[in-house]
Structures are given as structure tokens and as C-alpha cells.
Automatic annotation (TrEMBL):
Start-end of Basic residues biased regions: 312-321
PANTHER family: PEPTIDASE S54 RHOMBOID DOMAIN-CONTAINING PROTEIN (PTHR43066:SF11), RHOMBOID-RELATED PROTEIN (PTHR43066)
Region: Disordered, residue numbers: 292-321
Membrane topology according to the record: Multi-pass membrane protein
Domain named Peptidase S54 rhomboid: residues: 91-239
Protein name: Rhomboid family protein
Record organism: Allorhodopirellula heiligendammensis
Gene3D superfamilies: Rhomboid-like
KW Transmembrane (keyword) present: yes
Ranges where the DUF6576 domain occurs: 279-314
């Protein structure tokens, strides 16, 4: 492979020009959300009485509305509520709520997945699929914790606030990805409403400002602005503090099906591929070098620097041999 065949040897025009692989973690997340949406619409029932459910609106907000005549078993099980705080066995809802959407309005799903695709693909190309997944899930988790805890805090100042309001929607994670994009590519022009060109940092700053005003009570709506702001803060700190989730290894999850098949067949031989780790290290080194080319060495995280040093040391040792 020549240097011109690598990403960091090409001329870069926009963050999207460098995307080559159509199969990505972003696409996987979108497919999962669509499947969950279908399950939400399939497993429904008629309740005795309606109860409010928090959800993302087509504008990307998490609002409190009524589900109407029918409710979904999926929403009841996986949406996060304030009451979950006192039930530790339900804390998984702080992640699963981010994969649920308003089944009565398909535009809610379409809008969130569109934003995830537009802003997520360049981010995945920049930081890698595994790191993108970890950051996205972490942002969802932070928003879920805020959604679970905030009703109890509000109840201390506003008597009568319900802690049994369910929240669902991907806006916390999507907002984090948008802020990360604006931090990495602040001057990238985006077409607002497909017509008006606007800088990424201007658009995202405006959305965060609207959430701040809403959180201050100036909107008059029941939108859970805290979830938006939690995601935005996480995305900002992730970039500015150089956070990395490389210590959290999710690659072993890919081996679970093979291990289960191996156990079911009671296989006695275990295949060993000594070159696998080297190939993975080379792919990671290529990604880091591409990042240096596009954003400079100062953009590297501490974990990426260690990985590059380890790779360089191994290369020197192989030449000495």
C-alpha cells in the first residue's frame, strides 16, 4: 500500500469526503433503532388510563406527551423513569431509553437517525468505530442518569412534580455527537433547512442556547432540557479533555457467538492467530496517522499516543532483527 492509498495521503475537502466504508457502527445503530421501533409498534396494549411519556419531538426535543389509546410493552420495560432510581435492577433503562422513539410519529425516528448519520459518520471515521460506539453509549448513559435523577431534584423545589414520567429518545446521544462534530470541525459549513449555509459551531451553539433558555423555564414546555444539556456537556468535555474509552475493550463481544458455538460442539482444539493482534495494531496505527494528517499531532489523546509509541517500538525491533 503506497502512501497515496492511505487516508492521510489524500487531499481532504470536507469531513464527509474521507468516508469510504458504507458499513459502519453508525449504520448498525440506525438498523437497531429501526428494529426496536418496529417492536414498539408491534407489542402494544390498551391501558386502563393514560400516563405521560417523555419522548423526542421531530425537533429533537424530549417532551412529555400522552401515548393515546394504546401503550407499548417495550416502552414500559425499557424507558427510563425517576422511579427507577430506587430500583437498581432497572438502571439498565438509563441506556435502553436511547433506542426508543415515538411510535405514533415516525418523523421522530427519521429525524434523529438522519442527524446521527450526518454527524456520526465523520466522527466514526475520525475516532474509529469502537470508540464512537463507546462515546455514543456513554452520552446516552449520562442523559439517562439525568432523566432518572432530575425529577427527584425538581421535586425538592417544585412540589407535585411526578417521578413516574417515562423518558425515551436518542437526543442526548445525538446532541453529544453534534457538539463533538462542532468541536472537531467548527468552521465546516452546513446547510440549514437545506438552503441556508451556517458554520457548525454557530448551529450547535444556537441549539445549546435554546436548551439553556428552556431549562431556565423560558419555553413553557415540558421538554427534558437536562438530557440535551447533559449530552452536549459530555460531547464538549470528551473533545476538550481528550477523553478516550480505549481502556474499555468491546472487541471481545464479537467473539461471544464463536465461543458459544465452540462450547456447544465441545471443541477440543482452540485456534490461535498470532498475527491478529498485529493486524489490529496496524489498522489502529493507520487511523491515528490519518488523524495526525487531518487534525495535527495535538489532537491525539493520551491513549492514542501510547498506541503509536508501542507500534513504532515494535517496528524498530522488527527491523533490528
Amino acid at each position: 500500500m503506497g502512501i497515496n492509498d492511505r487516508d492521510y495521503g489524500r487531499t481532504e475537502r470536507t469531513p464527509w469526503d474521507r468516508i469510504e466504508n458504507p458499513r459502519s457502527m453508525v449504520i448498525t445503530l440506525i438498523v437497531i433503532n429501526v428494529i426496536v421501533f418496529a417492536a414498539q409498534s408491534l407489542f402494544v396494549y390498551s391501558p386502563q388510563s393514560d400516563s405521560p411519556v417523555g419522548m423526542d419531538t421531530p425537533q429533537g426535543e424530549i417532551a412529555v406527551v400522552s401515548t393515546g389509546e394504546k401503550r407499548s410493552h417495550i416502552d414500559d420495560i425499557f424507558a427510563v423513569r425517576g422511579t427507577s432510581l430506587t430500583r437498581p435492577w432497572l438502571w439498565f433503562q438509563t441506556v435502553t431509553y436511547g433506542f426508543l422513539h415515538n411510535r405514533s410519529n415516525i418523523l421522530h425516528l427519521v429525524f434523529n437517525m438522519f442527524l446521527l448519520y450526518v454527524f456520526g459518520r465523520p466522527l466514526e471515521q475520525r475516532i474509529g468505530g469502537q470508540e464512537f460506539l463507546k462515546a455514543y453509549l456513554a452520552a446516552i448513559l449520562v442523559g439517562g442518569v439525568v432523566a432518572m435523577v432530575s425529577p427527584w431534584l425538581l421535586r425538592m423545589f417544585v412540589p407535585g412534580v411526578s417521578v413516574d414520567v417515562a423518558t425515551l429518545g436518542a437526543s442526548g446521544g445525538v446532541m453529544a455527537m453534534m457538539v463533538m462534530f462542532a468541536c472537531y470541525y467548527p468552521h465546516q459549513e452546513l446547510l440549514l433547512m437545506l438552503v441556508l449555509p451556517v458554520k457548525a459551531w454557530v448551529l450547535v451553539s444556537f441549539l445549546v442556547l435554546m436548551d439553556l433558555l428552556g431549562a431556565a423555564g423560558m419555553s413553557g414546555s415540558d421538554t427534558a432540557y437536562g438530557v440535551h444539556l447533559a449530552g452536549a456537556l459530555f460531547g464538549f468535555l470528551y473533545v476538550r479533555k481528550g477523553w478516550s474509552f480505549q481502556w474499555l475493550d468491546l472487541t471481545q463481544l464479537d467473539e461471544i457467538p464463536a465461543r458459544l458455538r465452540q462450547r456447544s460442539r465441545r471443541a477440543k482444539l482452540k485456534l490461535h492467530d498470532p498475527e491478529k493482534k498485529i493486524r489490529e495494531e496496524e489498522r489502529e496505527a493507520d487511523r491515528i496517522l490519518a488523524k495526525i494528517h487531518s487534525s495535527g499531532e495535538s489532537s491525539l489523546t493520551a491513549g492514542e499516543r501510547r498506541t503509536l509509541e508501542k507500534y513504532s517500538r515494535r517496528k524498530r525491533q522488527s527491523r533490528d532483527l
